[in-house]
Amino acid sequence: MSQQLVQRILGELESLVLIDPHTHINPLAAPSKTLADILGYHYYTELCHSAGMPKERIEEPGISPKEKVGRLVEKIGDIDNTANYSWLMEICRAFFGFEDTAITKNNWEKLYDTALAKMSQPDWEQQVLKQSKLEKVFLTNDFDDPLSGFDTSLYIPCLRTDDLVFHYGKPEVRERLAKASGVAVNNVASLRTAIGKLFDHFQKHGVRACAISLPPDFSPQKVEGPAADRALQVALSGGTLSADDSVTLSRFIFWTLAEYCVEYRLPFDLMIGVNRRVYPNGVFQGQDLFDQRTSLILYRELFNAFPQVTFPISVLAQVSNQELVSYSWIFPNVVTNGHWWYSNIPAYIEPDCRSRLQAVPKTKQIGYYSDMYKLEFALPKFGMYRRILAKVLAQDFVMERGWSEERAIELGRLNLRGNVETIFNV
Amino acid sequence: MSQQLVQRILGELESLVLIDPHTHINPLAAPSKTLADILGYHYYTELCHSAGMPKERIEEPGISPKEKVGRLVEKIGDIDNTANYSWLMEICRAFFGFEDTAITKNNWEKLYDTALAKMSQPDWEQQVLKQSKLEKVFLTNDFDDPLSGFDTSLYIPCLRTDDLVFHYGKPEVRERLAKASGVAVNNVASLRTAIGKLFDHFQKHGVRACAISLPPDFSPQKVEGPAADRALQVALSGGTLSADDSVTLSRFIFWTLAEYCVEYRLPFDLMIGVNRRVYPNGVFQGQDLFDQRTSLILYRELFNAFPQVTFPISVLAQVSNQELVSYSWIFPNVVTNGHWWYSNIPAYIEPDCRSRLQAVPKTKQIGYYSDMYKLEFALPKFGMYRRILAKVLAQDFVMERGWSEERAIELGRLNLRGNVETIFNV
Amino acid sequence: MSQQLVQRILGELESLVLIDPHTHINPLAAPSKTLADILGYHYYTELCHSAGMPKERIEEPGISPKEKVGRLVEKIGDIDNTANYSWLMEICRAFFGFEDTAITKNNWEKLYDTALAKMSQPDWEQQVLKQSKLEKVFLTNDFDDPLSGFDTSLYIPCLRTDDLVFHYGKPEVRERLAKASGVAVNNVASLRTAIGKLFDHFQKHGVRACAISLPPDFSPQKVEGPAADRALQVALSGGTLSADDSVTLSRFIFWTLAEYCVEYRLPFDLMIGVNRRVYPNGVFQGQDLFDQRTSLILYRELFNAFPQVTFPISVLAQVSNQELVSYSWIFPNVVTNGHWWYSNIPAYIEPDCRSRLQAVPKTKQIGYYSDMYKLEFALPKFGMYRRILAKVLAQDFVMERGWSEERAIELGRLNLRGNVETIFNV
């Protein structure tokens, strides 16, 4: 395959202005303030911890941002092979003019100071958005987020619902719902009303998706009112939910969310497959893993019951990708969404991207989202994806199928940007 | 890897005359009559439906073939990225001289008319067979197929047994068996006799395989007569089979088929992993999906019990391919068979083909079958496979292992043709 | 990708002297005595059997080594496509100057005699070690191995514990433990003491790892003493263990081993996923297969309970590789270990190697072990791995990430040798 061909396609993809359809950006503090915000990303803390740095050293309370970076740099050489490290290097090169081949104990302080100076500029946020060619950024908002204080045409609200579905048995979650909705929940009808208030609130602020992450054994099913009410009453009375009750309540709330997605015409992002707190002594956000033994067959009833709702689906286990491809190929309301977390490395993105492009209608593929917590990460993450996409377009479409370059690039544009606009109605 | 090398190997593979060891051809109407027979293939209807075309519009009763094609063309641009679409283009180019890069609302009528003129020629069937280099074509015959009216040395009967194994509880299936066998079934002995009559009939017409598709949770086991009889009596009395009875009866009939495969010296094609009607509102034949959580360990008892029977195995989930490779590597009676359905795209064929060629005895691999419903599809489907096979032979055998081209080509010939002859005794 | 670049990296990797961290070498008879020791490797006998040679013909008692080779050669042409066969050819070329492209009925006798002459040289063992660049070789020792009669600085003891964990219910295993430990086991306390004696003995002889292979459904858990004792008493009384008791006893012994690994500071090699005797009529060592439906989530409790123990993990199913990558990425005590058995072919090694290098801290990856029974196999097996590693280093690190060649080679050295030293404290 000609490298020149790949480069030409890549050049065109790099000129695209992007909408990032899933991030964890805090719109009130979107860019990093110091290099500690970059190196504090869980990918670096968890990998340094995995390589042998004690959690206590990484997360010691009260240490300064500079101290934190200095400590992580001690171990970071052990993870310089990882894709995650390559994002860090690309950030440092692109934003801070860093030219060394690695971050070491000898050069990190200068880098820290350079970064600090840049990040302290009043227009740093705009600089990053512009250099990263980011036009809009989807958020992940708690259900009780006030959604105020930021430009919702730039930072687009998404209603994240894990707490409601999986933690409504906890008093603090019930209180948060009561406060956010103004509804005193005492049965399934009022629970439904309370959830509806959230959708009202989010719609007023331009919400573009409902979203949730799900464990590998979750299977959404319609629960009849009486069964749901019985489980709900246990929760409301402050009792401990049995495993069965807990499932029932989760299913009821999940199903209710899907019903509101019909009413409010929202896509429902499903992020399937994560087991939380598998390693509870891990660093912050570095405790979750997965069980590859899951299947989209668990979502059969849901996909059939809600033909009006689009489900952009992310899968955590790479072995789930073929199911995602096949379910998107058959169900009109299932679309592929990005490359998530443990599947977000080139070794998995490339085969997954290739199979989707070969088998799913081209209008039903959301190529990529950054999943970032700080703005600076869109640049290297989308960069990684674009390079892979350019390679697959060159090889599978121009070389193997004789497409023109322009046609291949057009497919790339749809994948990177066009489908985000149509699927999320941006 | 040298493209010239791949092309030379491909050239040799393209000169091969083929036996297609699994299709759904109707021998009384093997080629297409209009372009609607091509575009009506479930891959196009289901993908257009997936891309947003209502089922009602695609399957409206009474519309003409031309109207049907016109409607599908409205949506087909959305699936022009798929491997399935590339088959369509190759058919149009190879058989109808189509030279445009896509089928659009502007060119489809001319294409339709050209295709109609070609397909109306009296020797169209022979033209397609010749141009596709097809010497023989295996069929998929209902157990009560009369097998008359066609040349069984060209169109080779295979006894398909899904209905018997999974739907014998239905009165219409029992009636079909009664009629086909002439045996009044009233216990397991007479059920066995009735099934034996089918094998007699098929053998008289040159049957070369028994075949079945199986859901991911099916586990063949020997069932003792009394247990089978108890379940059978429920069915015969018109009662509703319990889940357990249903499994018992399926296992009994399946095991009986395997026993007859010993007696009639037939390979038993197992196509493992499909869940039927997952999306019941999908278009015709576009409703089935799968659960990747299956294993060939479920077939352990079968493979051990029938060392005399060869089991050519197709797996639906790509994650099953390594098990298939490993079980074929260990069990003398297990052989790999083609690339089935959702695994039949280049992104999956290439790694699966590569692993089989590296690990399974070369005499135990059936490279490919078309699974086609209409004759025109053998050309693009085998074409796709041959290009991948040529690439793997060039890279893994000539480049990596230093084989001569002729030796690599010989391996390709065995894979594409020779093994079909020996395994199915053609 | 430039072939010259790959070759330069490969050249450097080939100059490395190796420590092979997992083999089945008998240190009292490490090299082969005749070609029958090479061709008698289960890969050749099982593949020839799979290709159609009766077990009885392969394993007929009393046949001479030469007769055995002659028989296998009759069938070996049918498996000349396999990676395993390529090892055989590389052995014959490298050690015996064989120059033909295949072993046939016409050339095998000469090859046999040439090999016999070489293998009969008094320093054959040293020749093989030197030509294979092997410095140290890890063993797989039965728990009651006397560990005497060989140089434990060359052949490094590892305590293999399958029999203890899974077969302690058998009288002969209990007798072997009694004899090896000198402890009369009558309760869990004395069982623990007996096991401790084994660790004492092994430590005195320089043991570097405890190791075990595990079925896909095994889930280690801490068992309380009374429950363990109840199961143990059934075993000690000669009774038949129920399935539950059997699991309880296995878990108790396994957990006890992990506790001793803390005390003796030993890594605990886990080889996860094998089902034994799936094909009981297969040839010796050619009877085992697997069920891909397994998950490292089954080891969650273990990994959390023993942060002081390093677990080098091998997975049998290739679909388990991403879990292994992800668990190694998160858990400090989980490291990736080689490419095992059915996953030890280039088609699987390459994607697995790639994903590990992109996502696991570089200090936590044991690139490869030979798993060999006879010394001659290290050369072709490590050769295969080095070629793949060189390719991945060239493509993913030098080409894609702009690393210098020297830096990529350094990563390769760590992967092939450095990590073996640090992880096993050699």
Task: Please describe what this structure looks like.
Three copies of one chain form a homotrimer. Chain A has 426 residues and is of the alpha/beta class. Chain A folds into two domains: 33-126, uronate isomerase, domain 2, chain A; 144-377, TIM Barrel. Helix content of chain A is 50%, strand content 9%. Chain A is built from 18 helices and eleven strands. Chain A has helices spanning 3-14, 35-39, 42-50, 55-58, 65-76, 83-96, 108-119, 124-131, 162-167, 171-181, 188-204, 225-236, 243-263, 300-305, 321-330, 346-359, 378-399, 405-423, and strands at residues 18-20, 134-138, 155-156, 158-160, 209-214, 268-272, 274-275, 289-290, 311-315, 334-337, 365-366. In chain A, the strands form three sheets. Chain A has a six-stranded parallel beta sheet. A three-stranded parallel beta sheet of chain A has the order 1-2-3. Chain A has a two-stranded antiparallel sheet with strand order 7-8. In chain A, strand 9, helix 15 and strand 10 (334-337) form a beta-alpha-beta unit. In chain A, helix 11 crosses helix 13 (243-263). Chains in contact: A-B, A-C, B-C. The A-B interface holds A 293-297, 300, 303-304, 307, 319-320, 322-323, 325-332, 351, 354-355, 357-364, 396-397, 400-401, 403-404, 407, 411 and B 46-47, 49-52, 78-84, 86, 101, 275, 278-282, 286-293, 317-319, 342-343, 345-348, 351, 387.
